[in-house]
Amino acid sequence: MRRRPAEALLIDFDGVLRHFDASAYGDFEARHGVAPAKLLESGLEWHRQLPAVTGHWTRQQWLDEIAAHTGASAAALTEWDAYRGYVDETVLAFVREVRSSGRKVGLATNATDDLHDDLALFGLKDDFDAIVSSAELGVHKPSKEFFKAACLALETPADRCLFLDDTDRNIRGARVAGLSALRFTGPADLPYARAALGL
Prior knowledge:
- There is one protein chain.
- By secondary structure, the chain is α/β, with parallel strands linked by helices.
- It folds into 2 domains: 8-19 and 85-196, HAD superfamily/HAD-like (Rossmann fold, 3-Layer(aba) Sandwich), CATH 3.40.50.1000; 22-82, no CATH class.
- It is 46% helix and 14% strand.
- The protein contains 11 helices and 7 strands.
- The chain has a 5-stranded parallel β-sheet.
- It is globular and about 55 Å long.
- The two termini are 19 Å apart.
- It holds the Pfam family Hydrolase.
């Protein structure tokens, strides 16, 4: 039996809608003695990432922990954190296309407590019917609790939601929670997502 088109879209932020250009840091490493990639690597170590994305630490506390682990200066962390990346305009156009078709779209992301500041910076706050942040929920992807809350926020059953994310672990978690899910590798995946939504 052919599966019915999804009625709503849940989409990840970093790695799908927002990206970071390593070249934007210029001579950062030469000036600060540490590579931006090393700071990110430190921040993504699970015992530092988990409290940051579940609301137990503020973003500043997370940055302080990265500084303590790497020995980077406060100036280095401030400059590193000031670069907020860029929005993929093709993906944003897709989000707007989905909403204009009458389907709900929710942002579903593991994030620190400043997510809404970033959305305001990029002018994205009005592009979603719901914003589901792990820092606000206190639970993170790929837990069933996260996906249950995300579907409730869109007032759409899990089996009627399509989820886009760039991380395989999150895709598998979404499927276990009953959602349709597509691992996003780039704009070439959007035609499949459109078809899954019946567009």
